[in-house]
From TrEMBL, chains A, B:
Annotated SMART domains: HTH_MARR (SM00347)
MF-aspect GO terms: DNA binding; DNA-binding transcription factor activity
UniProt keywords, alphabetically: DNA-binding, Transcription, Transcription regulation
HTH marR-type domain mapped to chain residues: 16-151
Taxonomic source organism: Aliigemmobacter aestuarii
Record keyword Transcription present: yes
Keyword Transcription regulation applies: yes
Listed name of the protein: MarR family transcriptional regulator
GO biological process, one term: response to stress
Length: 166, 166
DNA sequence: ATTTTATGTCAGCCTTGTTGACTTTCCAAG
DNA sequence: CTTGGAAAGTCAACAAGGCTGACATAAAAT
């Protein structure tokens, strides 16, 4: 396969062809990764941007707009458009900060939590199936490579909740 | 960690929390995955869609528009717009099919191959660094999980060139 | 009192998806 | 041979969701 042994250590032959396969794997897999939520979102009048907002508000209830901006890596105008519709539709609640009243703290309403659940159930189902099919060792490797692929700032966001639920 | 042993077999505890980490890993890693090519594309007046077209024409020289459509999963109108600019700019050559003159066979010109190389060099550099950091076993697992996550049709496209260069 | 920070909003632009309508080409059934 | 349908490509128009720039407001910090 793609490995060889030298002095007891296993090495990878990182040919361009090997790397190209990794690149295409990312491309095709990401399509699958978003496919199920996308189908649900289409029924409402929402898009992937709404899903991302719901996801991270769910993950960190009470997060501020600014914090969300740095996680999502978009402009405030872009996020605001999405947030506006979610708030107007009663899926997200925006509360003025008590300590710093310039800040807005974001929470899912019951209705928002419901949609978030539906979306992440669909996404988790696929992830669970892939994990089961691949096995525990593969899952470990999957997470390790993905983490190594992140930009440092994104890795911080990722790790900041690393083992919070395990 | 996230594993346990029962009768010599290792099992995964697929808690929602574990799965959520996988989901976020995909999200953050994909951002890193596209970041370097995106920076290059910005300098030209191209976007990610152009990169994808160049990539798959490079991979399969002479491919038809229809074949490209099924790989990329967009409408022909959407692809056509991108293809048009690449052809007009002299990066892609479109040859009328000899057997079926409705078909167009696509090839990279020297100029197109050059840009493709620059883009994939950048993307491969990050992939190579991640592979090196994670190690061979992790790489194997990475590819296995990603493949399990694909839609069946995409998996076919992926596997169709599986070991062509290894 | 002034400046900085956090947020929101308006306007306008670009990329890249979409659908619908149309042409050209090919092929096959009559 | 003709005709009708399927396949490939093109043009036009629209929408989502990125972007920048400008500006308003409120609150915190200096």
């Amino acid at each position: 396969m793609a490995e060889g042994s030298v002095g007891g250590e296993t090495l990878l032959f990182l040919t361009d062809e090997q790397l190209r396969k990794g690149i295409e794997a990312m491309f095709f897999a990401y399509r699958g990764f978003t496919a199920d939520p996308d189908r649900i979102l289409e029924r409402m009048d929402y898009g992937r941007a709404h899903h991302r907002a719901l996801h991270f508000i769910h993950r960190s209830p009470g997060t501020t707009v600014n914090n969300l901006l740095s996680i999502l890596g978009v402009t405030k105008q872009s996020l605001n458009r999405v947030l506006r519709s979610l708030i107007d539709d009663g899926l997200v609640e925006s509360r003025v900060g008590r300590k710093d009243r310039r800040e807005r703290h974001l929470f899912l309403t019951e209705k928002g939590a419901e949609l978030e659940r539906e979306l992440s159930d669909a996404q988790r189902a696929r992830m669970r199936a892939a994990y089961r099919a691949a096995g525990p060792a593969a899952v470990q490797g999957f997470r390790t490579v993905l983490e190594a692929m992140m930009d440092p700032e994104m890795r911080r966001h990722y790790q900041s909740m690393k083992e919070s639920g395990s």
